[in-house]
């Protein structure tokens, strides 16, 4: 596979290139490690919730294979690695006692990354809420969870803040709220729009409280060393299938509940009025002072973008055009939307520096001769990096790109059937095999590093 077939984009010399994972999807558990159950452990144990009937007990066994996985990151030449802390691993009940065995694992991970010359970027909440909080207070349906989250954030900042490049409070709060509490697709599996919208508010409140708590820790640190602080949002821009009033209005509401629902409170201090009107009685209860807490300064904004929403109100619906095809999740591949969306965010919100914290492709990988020639994934990565290049040229301040994901892993309600990794994982043996996309990304990173020396 030559670079002429998939030419390397040109990005700024200081641009960060990395990969991302999450705790629940790769770590697994071990007897006696002290980790408490998460809502995903409970969800996996509920018959019919995971399509292949699997669970996260072993996943990619990263808990035991972490040093070798960091060696794979070093082989890729990564600048940075985005991972998540498992809240129930370090605080099994989501409050009170800490689990030192859990902290020790992350201590080793961070030191191993730093020894390899890879900057650690951490996420505090990548969906695996302690099950104890779900049972005791209803999880994110309760304001109490937001305050427990701030205490957890402060402890992470106190222990690791001097060694982390960045800390994101939340990963994709839309998924937590909408897929977890409205559609029942993700843990904890509820089906109430009213609950979901209240959860979305409590997540944002928890984000603001956590930023306040972590900044207080940083100010008290004698050496003054502290990570950049931000949040990671997933955006799926909405496009009207036809320029009819019905489609245009439906696309605007979809945008209001997806993009603007989280961006507006963070940057404007209010929920979008059209979305509030659309929700009616399902709109969240907001207490005095909440938006002042939510609207904390951000050092960076993390954006996860994979595809777009194609909104058609006609029956039967007008299908989306597929100029670049679809991935193994059935998601349309439209790299130009990434350019458009980054420019739109820059114009509408004037955000701090942006990191593309997730972008990647599920592909129906085939092993042949011990190799995985995942050419569609190479095309996907090249196309989206080129889209970032264009967005930067148009004025978007994008500072980094993290491919999702380093490894094939537990893909939530799809179980292990969908593969996003640069490395193929044989779940029977846990053997890792670099795919063609890993070789392409490695070559691209090497070329990019040469540009820094020029």
How does the SSE layout of this entry go?
Layout: E1 16-20, H1 23-26, H2 39-44, H3 62-76, E2 80-84, H4 87-90, H5 100-115, E3 119-125, H6 131-137, H7 143-160, E4 166-171, H8 173-182, H9 193-220, E5 228-234, E6 238-240, H10 245-268, H11 273-279, H12 290-294, E7 300-304, E8 309-311, H13 335-349, E9 354-358, E10 367-368, E11 371-372, H14 375-393, E12 398-404, E13 423-425, E14 432-434, H15 436-453
Parallel strand pairs: 1-2, 1-12, 2-3, 3-4, 4-5, 5-7, 6-8, 7-9, 9-12
Antiparallel strand pairs: 10-11, 13-14
In short:
The chain is α/β, with parallel strands linked by helices and 454 residues long.
Question: CATH topology, anyone?
Answer: TIM Barrel
Beta-strand percentage? 5-15%
CATH architectural designation = Alpha-Beta Barrel
Spatial order of the strands in the main sheet? 1-2-3-4-5-7-9-12
Count every beta strand, where a strand is a DSSP E run of 2 or more residues: 14
Shape: globular
Radius of gyration: 21 Å
- Fraction of helical residues: 40-55%
What structural class is derived from the secondary structure elements? alpha/beta
- Major sheet, described briefly? 8 strands, parallel, barrel
Task: Please identify the top-level CATH class.
Answer: Alpha Beta
Mean pLDDT: 97
* Topology as a string of helices (H) and strands (E): EHHHEHHEHHEHHEEHHHEEHEEEHEEEH
CATH superfamily: Glycosidases
Whole-number tally of structural domains: 1
Distance between the amino and carboxyl termini? 26 Å
């Amino acid at each position: 596979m030559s670079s002429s077939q998939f030419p390397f984009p040109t990005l700024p010399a200081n641009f960060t290139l990395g990969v991302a994972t999450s705790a629940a999807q790769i770590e697994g558990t071990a007897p006696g490690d002290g980790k408490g159950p998460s809502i995903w452990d409970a969800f996996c144990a509920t018959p019919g919730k995971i399509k292949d009937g699997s669970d996260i007990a072993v996943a990619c066994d990263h808990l035991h294979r972490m040093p070798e996985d960091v060696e794979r990151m070093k082989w890729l030449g990564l600048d940075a690695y985005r991972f998540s802390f498992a809240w129930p691993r370090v605080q099994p009940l989501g409050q009170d006692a800490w689990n030192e065995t859990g902290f020790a694992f992350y201590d080793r991970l961070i030191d191993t990354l730093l020894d390899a010359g890879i900057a650690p970027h951490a996420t505090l909440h990548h969906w695996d809420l302690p099950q104890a909080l779900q049972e005791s207070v209803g999880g994110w349906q309760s304001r109490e969870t937001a305050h427990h989250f701030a205490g957890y954030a402060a402890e992470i900042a106190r222990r690791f803040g001097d060694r982390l490049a960045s800390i994101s409070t939340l990963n994709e709060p839309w998924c937590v709220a909408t897929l977890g509490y409205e559609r029942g697709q993700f843990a904890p599996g509820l089906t109430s729009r009213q609950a979901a919208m209240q959860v979305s508010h409590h997540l944002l409140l928890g984000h603001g409280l956590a930023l306040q708590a972590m900044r207080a820790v940083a100010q008290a640190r004698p050496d003054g060393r502290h990570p950049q602080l931000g949040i990671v949002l997933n955006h799926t821009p909405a496009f009207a299938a036809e320029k009819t009033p019905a489609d245009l209005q439906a696309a605007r509401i979809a945008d209001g509940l997806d993009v603007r629902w989280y961006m507006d409170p963070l940057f404007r201090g209010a929920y979008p009025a059209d979305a509030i009107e659309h929700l009616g009685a399902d709109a969240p209860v907001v207490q005095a002072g909440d938006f002042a807490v939510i609207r904390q300064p951000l050092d960076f904004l993390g954006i996860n973008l994979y595809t777009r929403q194609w909104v058609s109100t006609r029956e039967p619906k007008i299908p989306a055009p597929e100029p670049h095809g679809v991935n193994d999740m059935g998601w349309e591949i439209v790299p130009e939307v990434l350019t458009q969306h980054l420019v739109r965010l820059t114009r509408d919100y004037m955000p701090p520096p942006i990191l593309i914290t997730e972008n990647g492709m599920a592909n129906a990988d085939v092993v042949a001769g011990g190799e995985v020639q995942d050419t569609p994934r190479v095309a996907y990565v090249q196309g989206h990096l080129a889209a970032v290049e264009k967005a930067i040229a148009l004025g978007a301040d994008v500072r980094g790109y993290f491919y999702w994901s380093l490894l094939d892993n537990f893909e939530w309600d799809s179980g292990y059937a969908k593969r996003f990794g640069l490395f193929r994982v044989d779940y029977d043996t846990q053997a890792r095999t670099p795919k063609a996309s890993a070789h392409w990304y490695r070559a691209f990173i090497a070329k990019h590093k040469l540009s820094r020396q020029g």
